[in-house]
């Protein structure tokens, strides 16, 4: 079943998450129509290779053309229209930057895998539960309801101001009419009666002026209360969800809803501002003793301007945090002289601002708060915000060609880039702009979450550990001195984040048993992990007991191993992985001989091994584990093929494959058959073919186990032995001779 078919079978709450990351940058129609072809391409490799990305883009357009031909024959007008639009988008938007579409598709496929993994996990962690709290959802609905009510109130006040204007025009006309009469006419009873009517009208005007000012005051007060409480909390919650999403957590939505709220409030405030201007205009034409306009209007206008300033300042946000396209799963880790992207949005979407706001990017603007290392940004660091580049028409700007460059110190040399402390130094990328609108000038500033600068890719694992720890431990967006005294983290939350590393990076998270093993490795046997506080040093700086590496280095090596060598097996759930040797034997001891499981090595970085159970002639159970396979050996031979072809030579016995059932009782070929690179070659004699007279050969992993040993032995290296050669050996040599030769 294709990945897309699995996605379509998800529950609605997960489908809503999928819907969030498909837009006009990569339309869902194309994902649906070309599902199998898209999943068969290596988009991640293309994201780092421009030539490969260009070929994939051209092939994608060809695939769209083929679909267009098909639907044209079916006369599906709507699909024809959409496919033509998509084809135009692909050619126009990505022709000059084909790696960008490769990054987008790669990210979408990865997010799909993460959501599929999350859907298969039975229990939510504490962090994810807090992000999906019913209280948060209720507040979101309340904010939207109140904003809508405020907008309606402002519009109703518009009608009151119009009525007041009409009433004043009538009063003005009747008053001027009386003033134009001769003195004798003014003394008539009719005129006196008209003067009394004018006085009554003036009283009504006064009442209506007070009423309008009161209504305007209530609208301003409601906006003030909403901005000070619920809207501020909603924005802070979105920023916290963004932090969590950056370290592998659930996708953060809600920015479009916030944009709608901010925009409606801004429109309401500008509407109130126009109403106050209209009152000022009415004031110049008519005033009287006790007139409320000159007393109340200046205070109300000052409050409106104050609210507009605050609303604009809060609306300037980093929509997508800095990230190198070459490492999309590691945002906020930036390498010197390597391009990164970052996207900003103004949540107040007004047509008058399109292409009118120029944003400038700088790094370490407040240099006194950071380390002695100094950086500058190279590339295009000033761009205009617009509504054309975003699929949803938001007012945004994306910087795609920024590069951090380290400046030389006063001593003439660069900072000590090789030290471990480099990955604990936090830096800040700042953005500033100015909004000029309707006579207001507002300066805006915002900053990215703290970033870590590296000069060598080897520093990336520890730099990413710093990003994880910071964003797990604090919601402070700018604590650049955080690692001067890093706080401890709650172990239960850290374990949840570690599971996210696997779900986001390699498509499948960790279950409770796997997480328990990691917890034991971090803190030993504990009664409860829920409230345990783990230090930063324990996580990333102190070596594991008896080892020459830290916990994080060990875990990062496993992630790299999965990603590069055993990804399909991991996604299928066939790699138990995190299980101790003691637990391993408990699981296998009562199983059928030949039952095996796969686990990661605890003593070798980036190693995977398998252990199987066997039964001796006297009925005793014995266990055998092979020497861990590392990335070097797995580069030569796929792991699924190793499991298929693995042989053991026992003393006085012929070689045989001891691996029969994957724990608990899955036949080996049923579990791994679809991952074999090819079917095993039929055994043939040297004369049975082979190119140019050569016998076809394959690598066969072979181990030797002595009968008088009850402890597992390490295997020999992979031996190049073809099936045909093995057949000839069996014809001419005894099993003992074969064993001697292997030894």
UniProtKB/TrEMBL annotation:
Pfam families to which the protein is assigned, alphabetical: SH2, STAT_alpha, STAT_bind, STAT_int, STAT_linker
Predominant location: cytoplasm
GO cellular component, as recorded: cytoplasm; nucleoplasm
Cleavable signal peptide: none
PANTHER family noted in UniProt: SIGNAL TRANSDUCER AND ACTIVATOR OF TRANSCRIPTION
Record family assignment: Belongs to the transcription factor STAT family.
Name the UniProt record assigns to this protein: Signal transducer and activator of transcription
Organism: Ploceus nigricollis
Gene: Stat4
């Amino acid at each position: 079943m294709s990945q897309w078919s699995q996605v379509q079978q998800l529950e609605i709450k997960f489908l809503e998450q999928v819907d969030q990351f498909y837009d006009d940058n990569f339309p869902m129609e194309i994902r649906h129509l070309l599902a199998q072809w898209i999943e068969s391409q290596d988009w991640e490799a293309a994201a780092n290779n421009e030539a490969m990305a260009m070929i994939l883009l051209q092939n994608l357009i060809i695939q769209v053309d083929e679909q267009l031909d098909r639907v044209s024959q079916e006369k599906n007008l709507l699909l024809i229209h959409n496919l033509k639009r998509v084809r135009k988008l692909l050619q126009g938007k990505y022709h000059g930057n084909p790696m960008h579409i490769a990054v987008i598709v790669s990210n979408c496929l990865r997010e799909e895998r993460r959501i599929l993994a999350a859907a298969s996990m039975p229990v939510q962690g504490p962090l994810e539960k807090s992000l999906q709290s019913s209280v948060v959802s209720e507040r979101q609905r309340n904010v939207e309801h109140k904003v809508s009510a405020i907008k309606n109130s402002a519009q109703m006040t518009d009608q009151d101001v119009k009525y007041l204007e009409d009433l004043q025009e009538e009063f003005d006309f009747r008053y001027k009419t009386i003033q134009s009469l001769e003195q004798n006419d003014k003394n008539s009873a009719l005129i006196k009666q008209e003067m009394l009517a004018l006085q009554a009208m003036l009283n009504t005007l006064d009442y209506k002026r007070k009423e309008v000012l009161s209504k305007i005051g209530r609208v301003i007060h409601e906006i003030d209360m909403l901005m000070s409480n619920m809207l501020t909390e909603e924005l802070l919650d979105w920023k916290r969800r963004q932090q969590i999403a950056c370290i592998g957590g659930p996708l953060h939505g809600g920015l479009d809803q916030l944009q709608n709220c901010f925009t409606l409030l801004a429109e309401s405030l500008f509407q109130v501002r126009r109403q106050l201007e209209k009152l000022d205009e009415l004031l110049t034409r008519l005033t009287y003793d006790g007139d409320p306009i000159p007393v109340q209007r200046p205070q109300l206008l000052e409050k409106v301007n104050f609210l507009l300033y605050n609303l604009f300042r809060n609306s300037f946000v980093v929509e997508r945090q800095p990230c190198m396209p070459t490492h999309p799963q590691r945002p906020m880790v930036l390498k010197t002289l390597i391009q990164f992207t970052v996207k900003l949005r103004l949540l107040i979407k007004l047509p008058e601002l399109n292409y009118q706001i120029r944003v400038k990017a700088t790094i370490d603007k407040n240099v006194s708060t950071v380390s002695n290392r100094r950086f500058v940004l190279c590339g295009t660091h000033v761009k205009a915000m617009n509504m054309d580049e975003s699929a949803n028409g938001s007012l945004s700007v994306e910087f795609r060609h920024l590069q951090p460059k380290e400046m030389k110190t006063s001593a003439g040399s660069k900072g000590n880039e090789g030290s471990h402390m480099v990955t604990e130094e936090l830096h800040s990328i700042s953005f500033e702009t100015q909004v000029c609108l309707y006579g207001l000038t507002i300066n805006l500033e915002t900053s990215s979450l703290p970033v870590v600068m590296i000069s060598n890719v080897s520093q990336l694992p520890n730099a990413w550990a710093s990003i994880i720890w910071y964003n797990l431990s604090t919601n402070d967006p700018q604590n650049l001195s955080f690692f001067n005294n890093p706080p401890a983290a709650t172990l239960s939350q850290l374990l949840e984040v570690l599971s996210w590393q696997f779900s986001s990076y390699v498509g499948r998270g960790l279950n409770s048993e796997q997480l328990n093993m990691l917890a034991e490795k971090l803190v030993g046997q504990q009664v409860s992990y829920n409230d345990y506080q783990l230090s930063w040093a324990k996580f990333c700086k102190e070596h594991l007991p008896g080892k020459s590496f830290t916990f994080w280095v060990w875990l990062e090596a496993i992630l790299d191993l999965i990603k590069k060598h055993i990804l399909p097996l991991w996604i299928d759930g066939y790699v138990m992985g995190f299980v101790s040797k003691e637990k391993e034997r408990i699981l296998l001891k009562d199983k059928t001989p030949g039952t095996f499981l796969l686990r990661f090595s605890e003593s070798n970085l980036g190693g995977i091994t398998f252990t199987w159970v066997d039964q001796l002639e006297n009925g005793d159970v014995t266990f055998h584990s092979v020497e861990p396979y590392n990335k070097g050996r797995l580069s030569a031979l796929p792991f699924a093929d190793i499991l298929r072809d693995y042989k053991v030579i026992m003393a006085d016995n012929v070689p045989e494959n001891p691996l029969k059932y994957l724990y608990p009782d899955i036949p080996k070929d049923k579990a791994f058959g679809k991952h074999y690179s090819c079917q095993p070659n039929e055994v043939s004699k040297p004369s049975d073919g082979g190119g140019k007279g050569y016998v076809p050969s394959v690598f066969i992993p072979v181990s030797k186990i002595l009968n008088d040993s009850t402890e597992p032995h390490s295997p020999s290296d992979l031996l190049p032995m073809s099936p045909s050669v093995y057949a000839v050996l069996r014809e001419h040599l005894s099993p003992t001779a074969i064993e001697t030769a292997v030894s």
